């Protein structure tokens, strides 16, 4: 095994807060600790009490008799929420994903975990690991993109980083909360193979490889049964088949009963109250009602024992049962190191989409016009429910309390002084005013935006999910007006994901900046002036809305947790993102993985070596340009023909390689046996094909894969080295036009035959730890 090359992409980072212990060791300690708990104390562990009216967004009461300080849970993926500007306001997770840099992903997790730790926060409510099915979905910026393999890899690094600091990472949302409209009264109807290969995959990696300490359930139903009531998913699959040992936490106010939710395998009800507000503190669907259900025989005493054990086992696994800091949300952790890391990730996540005539980096100009309200200082508002000024994060629980945001105008002006460049500005989105400011400049930079967020807030008519993919505030008109008077126009876009780009042929440069957090202005200035060579790549496919296989819905609001549901049929099955575009032969605006650089790279000498533990792919990467830069070689696989109705190519490996001009490096990318497997719904197991061959493709994005070779699944030699890299959509699948039918009325609890019931019972016992 080439151990040294496998580890070459994973840096050894900060030391953990304490020596890690195994789940088995944590279990032994937890069993001893809970042995003398009363049922009332066990119920205390499971039921949130302050109903988000205390200092933490969720909390568990102390048990003074045991010297137990209680539990503090706090948002979220972009940093500590409600910290009153004392914590770093990090970039959105989708930006971290755009770096395609495992080292940075781990460092961000570590830095965030440390900020939670110093505040005495037990559970960090992140990372989010949903799949970007539809580009208009409101919370896509909180997760890592469209590809299940890549989302899993990103989530894994962040989980490991957070937990290295002695903080519980809460992987969320389990499962299928991929849109906001009626999220608490909707059903995500997912075919079984897609459930495992697409939507379960990030949680598989988080549980198996990351040993994530906690999982948060989702608001929605899955195939007709709400996540919090779904014993098949929580107990049979997550705790049983995946062997998850930690605690399952509800999303806030997603539980509307005790009988079904507690029985199904939920361990902690957050934030405890039946509904929002101080009137519901202590008024819970759980609490004393758990004991009533045990007394009535609705679920056994062992279910309560299991929930309490899991919560304490989680705390032992995280090293929190002794010497954990007291809760103080306002410890100042806005350090120079965190600021620098946010700025680096912001710059490295900028995706250069167009650079005609090498218009960038900025050089040889005397006067720059900076145009658009998105270039101006951010107006701060509660949960960022306004889009006024430069856009650093979306809105909702995934955002933070900013101490500051570096606006692009200030950063560009500061940097331009170094080169004696004059900067003029027009900080509004008025097309006429923008054109007037741009007409006499050597270069015009137009800053535009679109926003999205969580469904409990409506911003400019958008209730979480975007109403359309257009730029906000007349952005297209502003760009057209500026480009009509200045032939050297560059567009910078701050947005959660793809936007319509009718101006693409009218401008020379386009940078997608995403949502970079507090250092956004510095990050974009670093790239514009060439202090940082852009190396970001799109973690999703960019195309017109109608070209995607699925979309969000805008139905009337239904009562959360009720029988009336918005139905989201996942008829695309395995064919999310680029897989759909390959299957249908649709050319996207920008493919998955797309991203330009100020230099050029060449890939060659592709080889594959199948060994017992997986596939080793080796290739040579050369910087053929004039400046240093980072290449991201990407590996896609076609599975053997014995795997039917499978995508033509799937993303399975990557690395990030810094190269000086003219420098070459040999890169080895390891693909383990799990990623060489598909999910067999008949066997209900992951299966690695034993016959046929894998075709390996290598290149810079899903549509630029110039290298190909093949290896036999059984590891024997394969002489073929040339494979046609073009995809013929018509021949890709015999059933290309067939839809996957899903019964919206499936009830997971009632849809098992007697043989499967026996397996369910066995897995339930494993989950309860009754053996």
Automatic annotation (TrEMBL):
It catalyses: Hydrolysis of terminal, non-reducing beta-D-glucosyl residues with release of beta-D-glucose. Residues 1-20 form the signal peptide. GO terms for molecular function: beta-glucosidase activity. It is found in: Secreted. Residues 631-702 form the Fibronectin type III-like domain. InterPro entries: Cellulose_deg_GH3, Fn3-like, GH, Glyco_hydro_3_C, Glyco_hydro_3_C_sf, Glyco_hydro_3_N, Glyco_hydro_3_N_sf, Ig-like_fold. Pfam families: Fn3-like, Glyco_hydro_3, Glyco_hydro_3_C. One of its GO terms (cellular component) is extracellular region. Its main location: secreted. Its EC number is 3.2.1.21. GO terms for biological process: glucan catabolic process. Residues 717-760 have a biased composition (Acidic residues). The keyword NADP does not apply. It is an enzyme of class 3 (hydrolase). Pathway: Glycan metabolism; cellulose degradation. Keywords: Carbohydrate metabolism, Glycosidase, Hydrolase, Polysaccharide degradation, Secreted, Signal. Gene3D superfamilies: Glycoside hydrolase family 3 C-terminal domain, Glycoside hydrolase, family 3, N-terminal domain, Immunoglobulins. Beta-glucosidases are one of a number of cellulolytic enzymes involved in the degradation of cellulosic biomass. Catalyzes the last step releasing glucose from the inhibitory cellobiose. Belongs to the glycosyl hydrolase 3 family. PANTHER family: BETA-GLUCOSIDASE, BETA-GLUCOSIDASE G-RELATED. This is Probable beta-glucosidase G.
